[in-house]
Structure formats: structure tokens, C-alpha cells
Amino acid sequence: MWIHRNALALQVEHLALETRHSRWPHRFWAVCLSLSLLFSFTSSSSSLNRAFYFLLPDSFNPLVYVSLPQQWGHVLQFRPMLAQIPPDASISATTYLVPHLSSRREIIRLPALELRNDARQVMKVDYAIADLWQLKQYQPAFKEERNLLRELVQLFDQLTKTQEYGVIDFRDGVILLQKAATPDPQATAAWVAFRQQLERELTQNRAR
């Protein structure tokens, strides 16, 4: 009887020991997974972090956070500008505006201005629209947005200087240009003021 009980106790102790050992790898990997998710959310370069912009800042250092109310207010500002573009017109747009124009047949992404139409002819687009406000929010922390912002400013300076395109509207950091159009004075003045402010910010972040 004593031998049987002793053997049973040893089996129970061995089973408990095996259970503790078997749980350790699971706990270890659970901790690793949790840390991985944490670093993904807090890393400014993570696509997962960018996907949850409405919940977490896109960057913590420097702090970059665009709330949903800000996004909605911004969309309400530029939506009338999209309505100014004829349905059959060709257009070039920045990334954040492409989904709003996805139903268009002839659309390309800025800074490109040339596309091949259905007749296989290479042509310059009729309109160009850029959400510089969106890029401006992210440029302090993200080099890609900062470089694109600089490139677009230089492009628009060239297009307006040669009068190849004219600024026909500007609202809340969104610029709309039309090929061979007479510039709108009020829109042009708003663009120049925004550009001056933007140039100062880009100069401050040039070293990053």
C-alpha cells in the first residue's frame, strides 16, 4: 500500500513538473508576441501603426497624430474641389486623394503628369490635385512624405511659372490646377501664403 501511494505521488509530481515545463514555452512566445505588437504599434515606420492612425499617433517622437474629426473636417473642405473636375477629365492626384477619384478612367499618381489614354497616346493630364495638408502633417516624422512635399512644391512652382497649369482653387492645404487655365487670384494668393509657411517648416526639418 505504501509503495503504491509513493509511486502515485511520484507520478503526480512528475506530471505537475511536465505541465510547468510545457507551459513555459507558451508563456515565452506569448510575451514575445506581445512585445512584437507593442513595438509595431509604437514604431513610426510601421505600416501597422499607420493603419491604426485613428487610435494611436503615427509617430511618438516627434508626435504626429491626426484625429478622425480633423480628417472629416478636412474632407469636407476639399470635397467641393473634386466636384469641379469633369467626370471625363484626366487627372493626377496624391495618394490620399486617389480613393476619392478611383471611379475616374484616366487617373495617375502625382508627381507624374503624363499617362497613356485608351487610344494609346501619351498625354498630359487635364487636372492635378494634391493634398499637401496631409503630407504636411506627416512630414516632421516621415522622410518619404517630406521629400514628396518638397518635390511637389518645386513641380507646382515650375508649372505655374511657365503657365502650363493654373491654380484654380486652394482650400485647407489642397491645391487644384488645370492645364492652360487662367489662375484664380484668390486661390493663387492662398497657395502662395501656404507655400511660404510650408517652406519654413521644411527648412526646420531639413536635417532629419
Q: Any overview of this molecule?
A:
It is a single chain. The chain is of the alpha/beta class and 208 residues long. It folds into 2 domains: 2-42; 60-204, no CATH class. 52% of the residues lie in helices and 16% in strands. The protein has a 5-stranded mixed β-sheet with strand order 4-3-7-9-8. It has a two-stranded antiparallel ribbon with strand order 1-2. β1 (59-60) and β2 form a beta hairpin. It starts with a helix and ends with a helix. Residues 1-5, 37-50 and 56-61 have low confidence and may be disordered. Pfam families: DUF2079. InterPro entries: STSV1_Orf64 (IPR018650).
Indicate the low-confidence ranges by residue numbers. 1-5, 37-50, 56-61
* Portion in helices: 40-55%
Structural class: alpha/beta
Mean pLDDT: 79
Shape descriptor reads globular
Count of all domains: 2
Q: State the total count of DSSP E strands.
A: 9
Largest sheet: 5 strands, mixed
Give the neighbour order of strands across the main sheet: 4-3-7-9-8
Beta-strand content: 15-25%
Instruction: Give the CA-CA distance, first to last residue.
Output: 78 Å
The SSE order reads HHEEHEEEEEHHEEH
Number of helical segments with 4 or more residues: 6
**What's the Cα radius of gyration?**
28 Å
InterPro entries: STSV1_Orf64
Which tags fit this structure?
208 residues; alpha/beta; two-stranded antiparallel ribbon; 9 strands; 52% helix; STSV1_Orf64
Quick structural summary:
Helices cover 52% and strands 16% of the residues.
Topology of helices and strands:
Elements: H1 2-42, H2 47-51, E1 59-60, E2 63-64, H3 68-83, E3 91-93, E4 107-109, E5 114-116, E6 122-124, E7 127-131, H4 132-138, H5 143-161, E8 165-171, E9 174-179, H6 185-204
Parallel strand pairs: 3-4, 3-7
Antiparallel strand pairs: 1-2, 5-6, 7-9, 8-9
Pfam families: DUF2079
